[in-house]
Amino acid sequence: MFVDTAKIFVRSGDGGDGAVSFRREKYVPLGGPDGGDGGKGGNVVLIVDTNMTTLLDFAYRKKYAAEKGGNGSGSKCSGKNGEDLYIKVPLGTVVKDVSSNKIMADLSHAGDRCLVARGGKGGRGNVRFTTSIRQAPNFAEPGMPGEERYIGLELKILADVGLVGFPNVGKSTLLSVVTKATPKIANYHFTTLSPNLGVVDVPGIKSFVMADIPGIIEGAAEGVGLGTEFLRHIERTRVLIHVVDISGIEGRNPVDDFVKINDELKKYDVKLWDRPQIIAANKADMLYDDKSFENFKNELKKLGYTKVFKISCATMSGIKELMQETAKMLVSIPVVDIEINEEDRFVPEEKKFTYNVRKEGNVYIVEGSFVDRLLDSVNVNDPDELRYFYKVLKNKGVIEELENKGIKDGDVVRLNDFEFDYVM
């Protein structure tokens, strides 16, 4: 089963919490703080596996989560870092962030990898909060949460040469006679329902990878037939071999077929239409004379295409010359990665804790992820921790924003379930 698209959910590990701990030592207040930091959460990383050929694995497993960081402990012991999670994907996978539809990476080389979810930072233990006037802090920091997102995976096959053309013109047969590939071959349309790959290894020429791309007919760019389902797989090819049925046994004009397929390539991506093409006039063994081929060749010359080969997959005539010309063209055409425009590139945002201040009657409400994290890290019933709590509110600009909104002495400030009277 060939699967070339998938959507999965990934979550990195949360950071471990810092520890509140005190050592027992004579003449040291409360024994002295020695709470260690929490460990970092594990990352989620995609890595290329050259042994994979489809995204079939992701049809059965949709959710992936990395390990959480361990909590800190006494004696200034830090928690264990969470293990990174490595997810294997086939060569040629394009990774997208689903929510923004922006490209995170193009994994088109062996060994390529992409960090798709960064692990949360570990929280600081209470030993980190000691000052000259706060020698025994009874609070620590919780770990930072990990990242989570849906990512889209799209496989774009890595092939040097792509075979295009109407169904039943002999693309699969050509692939089978020049490689060891064994595609399904039969005398009806849409025999090939998924791309087939093969390595061309003809004596005297450098080997190259060829792909038989199914599903291109008139209207394919708008979804007719197999639609655009497999057009993505010729985006990476450097040369296209356009196979045409020169015999006309199906009642179609070979020149019209050629023009229609090129129109579909242009509608899908103008860069495909501009790609170098070699025309393979197949089924030449069924022609009564050479006049039909010469007329076809002259018509294509008027359209600007000069590399036209008369071939027959049944008799193997012209096949070697076609492959030699293909190999010769590949030498002068460099391998180019998919171009990613800056506006289409995913840029990870630094995780920030935010808050919002609003007023309901005489109550000023502060809410948001900043509030949740702050309340998790302190015990507001402890005077020492309450002073730290107020200091953080002031440093982060919360007090200033409350004053800008007109707060007065005695007004109530609410942060989740915690309320206090404001005093200037």
UniProtKB/TrEMBL annotation:
Keyword Magnesium part of the UniProt annotation: yes
EC top class named in words: hydrolase
Entry-linked CDD domains: Obg
Keyword line: Cytoplasm, GTP-binding, Hydrolase, Magnesium, Metal-binding, Nucleotide-binding
One Pfam family from the record: MMR_HSR1
Domain annotation OBG-type G: ranges: 159-331
Chain residues that bind GTP: 165-172, 190-194, 212-215, 282-285, 312-314
Function: An essential GTPase which binds GTP, GDP and possibly (p)ppGpp with moderate affinity, with high nucleotide exchange rates and a fairly low GTP hydrolysis rate. Plays a role in control of the cell cycle, stress response, ribosome biogenesis and in those bacteria that undergo differentiation, in morphogenesis control.
Name this polypeptide is given: GTPase Obg
Organism: Clostridium aromativorans
